[in-house]
Write a structure and sequence with these properties.
Layout: E1 6-15, H1 30-34, H2 40-58, E2 69-82, E3 91-103, E4 108-120, H3 121-135, H4 149-159, H5 162-167, E5 173-177, E6 184-191, E7 195-200, H6 205-211, E8 216-221, E9 229-233, H7 243-260, H8 262-265, E10 274-275, H9 293-325
Parallel strand pairs: 4-5
Antiparallel strand pairs: 1-2, 2-3, 3-4, 5-9, 6-7, 6-10, 7-8, 8-9
């Protein structure tokens, strides 16, 4: 098997208050979680308002009424075919978000950043199936040999594909929560949009996992945020993206994190010079958006088993051989 035996299909759907998750969307994905239940439309409307408000607070120049900009979101679903022939069995590999920025004053729509949120069935398999099985009955936690390499190589193959180049002009930026198992130290480095930079005491398993995807990490706490975020990127995040592009990612992902991890990102006190995030923090505020965090954890295991059954097990030998020989 060679890299030419893999092909990618990209599908897009608008994320707005009328959004309904497709059957192939991971049920634990941030945006899918908001779009279920009796409060789905109110959830979506309130989340989108939060994103726009945060965007305008950061893009405050020439914006006296804090209402000049609006963020449009598209869900990017990446399917992968193995071999030639029928594409009906394409595997849903990755889902990410793409932002666009609407300038209400000029009616101009500019491209934002692709990435932002990151969802992957293979990652569910790695963390919810493979990792627990590897550590069963072990006294010390460890990761399997070559853990994350297949997923990382598939991601890099997608970024190098014609499908990616045809749809997106820049590499992705993925924004996640800082790890609650690590300690972060504030530095003197400060960016006008990304804010104050923090450095961590050690890499987390997520950092190492994303490194195998070809992504570096830096931690910044944007102006008026209360905790640093992890930004995963290629190249130079401070130089490769415009202020409005960065703001589109911050406003989108901070909104999601306020909803999903209010103990950290909607805390009533901001991170200090030395900071360790904690989901046990009780001094925080809730948004008006309904979210079932326990359901999300349960479904991650189901989705990991789906990936094992439909993708890992049928192609295991071929995938392992291809990944071992892959050179990005």
């Amino acid at each position: 098997m060679t890299s030419q035996d893999f092909t990618f299909n990209i599908k897009t759907i608008r994320f707005d208050e009328d959004y309904h998750p497709s059957e192939s969307t991971r049920a634990t994905t941030n945006f899918a979680n908001l779009a279920r239940g009796d409060n789905r439309r109110e959830n979506l409307r309130n989340a989108l308002k939060m994103i726009d408000s945060r965007f305008n607070s950061l893009a405050h120049w020439d914006n006296p009424n804090a209402d000049r900009y609006s963020v449009q979101l598209e869900i990017i679903s990446v399917e992968m075919n193995v071999g030639e022939g029928d594409t009906s069995g394409a595997f849903p590999l990755i889902e990410i978000l793409k932002t666009s920025i609407v300038d209400r004053e000029t009616s101009e729509v500019t491209e934002g950043i692709v990435g932002n949120n990151f969802s992957s069935y293979v990652r569910d398999y790695d963390f919810s199936v493979l990792l627990p099985e590897h550590n069963k009955n072990r006294t010390d936690f460890s990761t399997p040999e070559k853990f994350g390499e297949l997923h990382g190589n598939l991601f890099k193959l997608f970024l190098n594909s014609k499908a990616y180049r045809d749809h997106f002009s820049k590499p992705p930026v993925i924004c996640l929560s800082a790890s609650s198992s690590k300690t972060y130290q504030r530095t003197d480095n400060q960016h006008p949009i990304l804010g104050v930079e923090y450095v961590q005491n050690a890499f987390s398993p997520t950092d190492e996992y994303f490194r195998k995807m070809g992504l570096k990490v830096r931690f910044f706490m944007p102006p008026n945020s209360v905790a640093p975020f992890a930004f995963y990127f290629m190249g130079d995040i401070l130089r490769d993206y415009t202020n409005l592009e960065l703001i589109s990612t911050i406003s989108t992902m901070e909104t999601f994190q306020k909803i999903y991890r209010p103990e950290i990102y909607n805390a009533n006190a901001a991170a200090g010079t030395c900071y360790q995030p904690s989901l046990k923090n009780e001094d925080y505020s809730l948004t008006r958006i309904v979210y079932d965090r326990e359901e999300r954890s349960r479904l991650a295991l189901e989705q990991g088993k789906f990936a094992e059954e439909k993708f890992i097990a049928p192609y295991r030998t071929m995938l392992e051989q291809w990944s071992a020989n892959y050179a990005s």
